[in-house]
Amino acid sequence: MAVIEIDTLTVERGRVPVIVDLSLGVEAGTVTGLLGPSGSGKSTLMRAIVGVQLVTSGTVKVLGAPAGSATLRRRVGYVTQAPAVYLDLTVAENLRYFARVLGASPRTVSAALQTVDLVGYERRLAGTLSGGQLSRVSLATALLGNPEVLVLDEPTVGLDPVLRRDLWAAFRRLAEHGTTILVSSHVMDEADHCDRLLLLRDGQLLADDTPAGLRARTGKASLDEAFLSLVEATA
């Protein structure tokens, strides 16, 4: 069953099309990768899915409701590229504050810290953390309400290979427990962690397939080469 349903979505900025007549679905309990170069429309599409993007035409539904509906506020978690935490609060203070906002149990704070591997950082001021650590605090805040859908915009940017590996393992565990995850990246070597891949270029969907399916379709061994092959075919 598709928990994210997009039908003929078009988004323009200053009459310049950013997303063009896009239709797709994301199935429940999957890790779906949204891939493409910078400027392909990934962040715009994610904002449309969480209901904070003005759309020109088309519809976006999440869990059966229009994107941005009040009923979705606790059911959908969203992590932007820029960390969305208070720099003058500690890690624990940030998480306790957002737990209260979401009406989540305080017990979810420790679970979220464990998921993003920040146990031991509770008393650190957010403003003293590295960029990668701040990104993980933002991810922890999104996990507090145990969302059914998790939308992650470039969550592994600035992280070292070990943390990237551990976060992808965490995403997989969440999906196995029923969370639907849509994660964007421009790093093609992360694509093999996903159940399904959505490849965007210039606001259009080049492919919606599994990693294995993309390799078979293009005859390429690497997903990077597969993506380039699809780009060249549509040039």
TrEMBL record:
Residues 4-227 form the ABC transporter domain. PANTHER family: ABC TRANSPORTER G FAMILY MEMBER 20 ISOFORM X1, ATP-BINDING CASSETTE, SUB-FAMILY H, MEMBER 1. One of its GO terms (molecular function) is ATP hydrolysis activity. This is Unannotated protein. Keywords: ATP-binding, Nucleotide-binding. SUPFAM superfamilies: P-loop containing nucleoside triphosphate hydrolases. It comes from freshwater metagenome. The keyword Secreted does not apply. The keyword Lipid metabolism does not apply.
